[in-house]
């Protein structure tokens, strides 16, 4: 490790490693990159503990286009991330699609409005009435459903650690350096950040600092005398077995079931021979950064009742695994924050993804690399999700938040 780098990235999971990759693959960037990761095992990283899926079904065009880029990038990941002498990093992208269900008038209006945005962006999403829904997925009880929105392509789930490790391996192969250490202080001289001090005692000069520290983003910002409205929120995921699995029963997509979002908020998708499920908690307070105790009661109280009501196939199910991870939750509007601080221009945020970090990582990494290299966005304009809206208390509206 040197004593000075053009870019220091705080956090080396999927967001930090995506930034490092896009910087090092850009021929117009010739600088040095250091990624500081406090836990190189990534055991408790939001990346590692996520449900690892991607969807195009958002209500804002920017979020749709971010995921369109992510979907295309994931499909071509093995070739793009190939490192000489190593096996291609296969992500096993299962394009099962997303299925949103609405049982109220407000829900129907939201799905229709969202669909107009999605179709205008070229997303392969269709709206179905009750009969079409029942025909496509005969295991479901649909008498209460007024409208469904189904993504026919470009949506699904994939390997979360595969995405992160692929970015990291390729970034390192291209010359980015990684160090297992923790940033404990950030030097600042007026309108510029100047250095990071590591727990090991080393001080590293930095031309630009990127905050990619996930749920700990506010801690990193405060070291620079700044702030960001991001806090850890706990989400518990359950893997369950089915006595009579409905996987393979769909009349679309070669029998594969989608990731279904029930009107209750409970979601469920296939996970190999099992199913993965979760639900928004009834109470959702900020938690300690080291609190990863699952909320065991959510399965019995929220998930199982909703799923058993929705399908007879989910009446006899048994939990086989569970874990809790953290959302890096943006308390202003539950959306990503990508951009420089307007008063400290060489401190760049890549935070607040609120559960969407994996699917938005490729576009966010590319966007941050463009800000550093060119001083502005060159491909997808992410200005609407910049830090200025935080200072102005101006939420970025996204209605399709899970």
Automatic annotation (TrEMBL):
It comes from the Bacteria. Its EC number is 1.-.-.-. Pfam families: DAO. The chain crosses the membrane at residues 7-23. GO terms for molecular function: oxidoreductase activity. It comes from Tabrizicola soli. InterPro entries: FAD-dep_OxRdtase (IPR006076), FAD/NAD-bd_sf (IPR036188). PANTHER family: FAD-DEPENDENT OXIDOREDUCTASE DOMAIN-CONTAINING PROTEIN 1, SARCOSINE DEHYDROGENASE-RELATED. Residues 6-371 form the FAD dependent oxidoreductase domain. It is an enzyme of class 1 (oxidoreductase). Keywords: Membrane, Oxidoreductase, Transmembrane, Transmembrane helix. This is NAD(P)/FAD-dependent oxidoreductase.
């Amino acid at each position: 490790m040197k004593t000075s780098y053009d870019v220091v990235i705080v956090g080396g999971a999927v967001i930090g490693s995506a930034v490092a990759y896009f910087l090092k693959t850009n021929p117009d960037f010739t600088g040095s990159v250091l990624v500081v990761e406090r836990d190189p095992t990534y055991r408790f990283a939001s990346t590692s503990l996520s449900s690892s899926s991607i969807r195009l079904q958002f209500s804002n065009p920017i979020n749709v286009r971010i995921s369109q880029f992510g979907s295309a990038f994931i499909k071509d990941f093995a070739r793009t991330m190939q490192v000489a002498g190593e096996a291609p990093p296969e992500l096993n992208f299962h394009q099962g699609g997303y299925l949103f269900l609405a049982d109220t008038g407000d829900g129907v209006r939201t799905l229709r409005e969202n669909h107009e945005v999605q179709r205008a962006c070229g997303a392969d999403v269709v709206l179905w009435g009750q009969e079409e829904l029942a025909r496509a997925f005969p295991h479901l009880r649909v008498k209460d459903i007024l409208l469904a929105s189904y993504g026919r392509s470009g949506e699904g789930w994939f390997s979360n650690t595969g995405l992160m490790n692929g970015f990291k391996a390729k970034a390192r192969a291209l010359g980015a350096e990684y160090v297992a250490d923790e940033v404990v202080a950030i030097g600042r001289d007026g309108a510029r950040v100047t250095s990071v001090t590591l727990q090991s005692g080393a001080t590293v000069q930095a031309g630009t600092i990127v905050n990619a520290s996930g749920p700990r983003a506010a801690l990193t910002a405060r070291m620079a005398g700044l702030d960001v409205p991001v806090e850890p929120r706990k989400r518990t995921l359950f893997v369950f077995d089915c006595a009579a699995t409905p996987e393979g029963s769909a009349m679309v997509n070669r029998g594969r079931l989608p990731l279904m979002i029930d009107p209750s908020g409970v979601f469920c998708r296939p996970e190999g021979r099992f199913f993965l499920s979760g639900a928004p908690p009834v109470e959702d307070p900020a938690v300690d950064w080291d609190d990863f105790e699952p909320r065991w009661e959510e399965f019995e109280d929220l998930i199982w009742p909703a799923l058993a009501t929705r399908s007879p196939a989910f009446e006899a199910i048994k939990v086989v695994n569970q874990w809790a991870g953290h959302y890096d939750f943006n308390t202003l509007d539950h959306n990503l924050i990508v951009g420089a601080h307007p008063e400290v221009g060489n401190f760049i945020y890549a935070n607040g993804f609120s559960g969407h970090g994996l699917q938005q990582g490729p576009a966010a990494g590319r966007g941050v690399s463009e800000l550093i290299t060119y001083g502005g966005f060159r491909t997808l304009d992410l200005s609407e999700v910049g830090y200025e809206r935080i200072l102005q208390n101006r939420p970025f509206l996204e209605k399709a938040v899970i």
